[in-house]
Fold this sequence. Notes:
By secondary structure, this protein is of the alpha/beta class. It is 48% helix and 14% strand. The chain starts with a strand and ends in a 5-residue tail after the last helix.
Amino acid sequence: xxxxxxxAPGAGKGTQAAFIKERYGLAHISTGDIFRxxxxxxTPIGKVAKSYIDAGKLVPDxxxxxxxxxxxxxxxxxxxxxxxxxxxxxxxxxxxxxFAKVDLCVNIDVDKSLLMDRICGRRMCSCGATYxxxxxxxxxxxxxxxxxxxxxxxxxxxxxxxxxxTYAAQTAPLVDYYAAQGKLCTVNxxxxxxxxxFAAIAAELDKYVK
Length: 210
Ligand code: AP5
Ligand code: MG
Ligand code: ZN
């Protein structure tokens, strides 16, 4: 099973990807995570990506598509793949269709009014765990591994505003793109806990797993 996770910044793509990976064994491929690792490592891709990410804009398609293509064609995929943050515009979606088969697009729908707080309150751990200050009870270290939590550089109000505008203009049209292919399923990502949202996603995915 190969899926695309679609959703605005802060919708819960990374949070749900962790649940989905655990239950279904899909390889989690997050272009945002790959870019951040490249920035941290000071690679040429990281140097290109940084200015775009800091501005809340999309990294150029040729860089992003090449990276995903290489990962899908040459990397370990387990029971299939789960793309988080790719495709992010119609060009990338069409490109993806030339080198991989997408079975389902899971659209995590969250009202825009919730997104700013979710992102600005997010705390991350280098082990991959994601938290929100509202449920941390003042903790500053990761409950899973004990390392200190940090904020992403692009999680400030100005950049988030730009990211939300980029999403509306360039990424939201993918909802119609996958609906037209009969591959879209939309879950309400704003009404329940992460576990409740996952239950709704799992109900959809179970239809595709033998
Ligand atoms: P990327 O890393 O993909 O960021 P994003 O799309 O902005 O999404 P986020 O990671 O911020 O949110 P999320 O949906 O994963 O939410 P999360 O689960 O963390 O991309 C970053 C940048 O890289 C882009 O701006 C762009 O520049 C570049 N880029 C990446 N891909 C690209 C591409 N294909 N092409 C070009 N450029 C690209 O949850 C958020 C918060 O909410 C957390 O605190 C979490 O605990 C909380 N939360 C989650 N679920 C719930 C719930 N049900 N109830 C309450 N709180 C919840
Ligand atoms: Mg994410
Ligand atoms: Zn951790």
